[in-house]
Amino acid sequence: MNYYARQCSATGEGMDEGWYSEGDCLYFKYKEDALKYVATLGYNSIDDAYDDELIYYTSWNDYDDYEYVEIDGKIYEMAKLDSLTQHIVREAIRTEFILRDINFYLDSYRDRKGIGTMDDGQWANLFIEKIAVCIKSYETKNENNENN
Prior knowledge:
The protein has helices spanning 31-40, 46-51, 83-113, 120-147; strands at residues 2-4, 6-7, 14-15, 17-21, 26-28, 56-59, 68-71, 74-77. The protein is elongated, with a radius of gyration of 22 Å. The longest helix is centred in the middle third of the chain and has 31 residues, at 83-113. It has four helices and eight strands, in the order βββββααβββαα. The protein has two domains: 2-87, no CATH class; 117-148.
């Protein structure tokens, strides 16, 4: 399952970055499609259209930005799916964002500590150890607050 923030107005493909024309609410994944669009409005370049605040390049990468999901090669707008399917897809997206954060944390930790390559089991054990330290610290803090 793939998910995307937007759907290209020219190709119908999913996209997480590209050109956006706010006035017409159009999205373009490919520069050549954005250029064709601005040409129909009398512009010679995307830069000229940008200068007139007609179109700009952007990306979407927050959890809440994702509005489309690709299932078996077909793209669906999440708002048009039944509520259970929407919930399942949103949880899958949320889980992937959490895993990205965990991988970033683990890579940073490895780099700081000078640790070489580790297999998934070793990373999992290291991560569990770090969570245990955080939980113990939290519990100790709560016990101290209760005793005061």
